[in-house]
Amino acid sequence: MQIISLFASYAGLGLFAGLLAGLLGVGGGLVIVPFLVALYSLQGFAPSALMQLAVGSSLATIVFTSLSSMRAHHRRGAVDWPVMLQLSIGILAGAGVSGSLAHWMGGAALAVVFGVFELAVALQLGFAGSAAAHRQAPGRVRNLVAGALIGALSALLGIGGGTLTVPYLVWHNIDVRRAIGTSAACGLPIAAVGTLGFVWAGRQVEGLPGASSGYVYWPAVLAISAASVAAAPLGARLAHRLDRLLLRRIFASFLFLLGLWMIGHNLPARP
Predict the structure, then answer these.
(1) Which distant-in-sequence residues (6+ apart) come within 8 Å of 134 by Cβ?
(2) How far is CA 245 from CA 71, 73, 249, in A?
(3) CB neighbours of 138 closer than 8 A, spacing ≥ 6?
(4) What pLDDT is attached to residue 1?
(5) DSSP the chain
(6) In which residue ranges of the chain is pLDDT below 50?
(7) pTM (2 decimals)?
(8) Angle at 56 between CA 61 and CA 211, to 5 degrees
(9) Distance between CA atoms of residues 220 and 216, nearest Å
(10) Domains of the chain: which residue ranges?
(11) Residue 217 φ/ψ, nearest 5 degrees
(12) Residue closest to 186 by CA, chosen among 204, 162, 170
């Protein structure tokens, strides 16, 4: 019964993340990571590895969801493949070191960084407008550098990178629809290389749960991935019927609270 309830919890998390992705185009990692930290804690996983396990598992779910998203955007001609490939070269380098960096930082520091990032995304979603175009299309060198930074930070935090890639591309005068499609395609190398990095970084860590490869816990990955892929199309359909601005602000408030929770539970206690 306990196993069934855990899988139900993971599937419910996947449904929620998939609906959000369809409704708002926001990757599920911002929600998946904090909830996995809570669920893993309830399962009694080692406290020192909770955050790394949550991030690594989140990245593995994005591998599956990004394949579906990338295919859908490609069918609509919304992926700028030359820009995507240039970004991906940098992404491979940046995302590749994320697992080792997360292992070195430790769970508490990583959780605080994640919480601060969530607060920033919440403020951007709730109050800021879309990025305005200021430059021409980005060049190869700029894309390589940007890809490395986007890949490193996204994989470190267990997200697909849309909150970073889309504003970067729109800033460089790429149409927002192509920016979203290109960002969706960039999510695959971020997630795939980031997952491998977390598997490698946790390969010799003792006390990790069974059915895990390094810092990736597969029961959670499979349940979340299946549910989120199924729920995303429903979210996309609902997006045409609901007030998206109101939804953005509600979700921003939710993210803000999650960010505060992540920070508050991981700052060192006062003596």
Answers:
(1) 171, 173
(2) 27, 23, 6
(3) 83, 146, 168, 169, 172
(4) 43
(5) -HHHHHHHHHHHHHHHHHHHHHHH---THHHHHHHHHHHHHHTT--GGGHHHHHHHHHHHHHHHHHHHHHHHHHHTT---HHHHHHHHHHHHHHHHTHHHHHHHH-HHHHHHHHHHHHHHHHHHHHH--PPPP-SSS--HHHHHHHHHHHHHHHHHHT--SHHHHHHHHHHTT--HHHHHHHHHHHHHHHHHHHHHHHHHHTTT-TTPPTTEETTEEHHHHHHHHHHHHHHHHHHHHHHTTS-HHHHHHHHHHHHHHHHHHHHHTTSPPP-
(6) 1, 269-271
(7) 0.88
(8) 85
(9) 9
(10) 2-264
(11) -100, 110
(12) 162
180 closest CA partner among 72, 33, 65, 95? 72
Q: What token pair was written down for 150?
A: 């986007």
Measured CA to CA, the distance from residue 126 to residue 78 in angstroms comes to 26
Tokens found for residue 261: 């929770």
Rounded to 5°, angle at Cα 88 from 204 and 60: 40
Strand-pair partners of 212: 217
Cα gap 236→169, rounded to integer Å: 22
d(CA 95, CA 80): 21
Taking the CB of residue 159, how many other CB atoms lie within 10 A of it? 31
Q: How far apart are CA 130 and CA 19, in angstroms?
A: 22
Instruction: Locate 159 and state its tokens.
Output: 């997200």
Cβ count near 264 (within 10 Å): 11
Q: Which residues contact 85 (CB under 8 A, 6 or more apart)?
A: none
Instruction: Give the pair of three-digit tokens for residue 227.
Output: 């549910």
Q: What is the pLDDT of residues 199-210, one digit of tens each?
A: 999 998 988 998
What would the pLDDT profile of 221-253 be if each residue is shown by its tens digit?
999 999 988 887 777 677 667 776 777 788 888
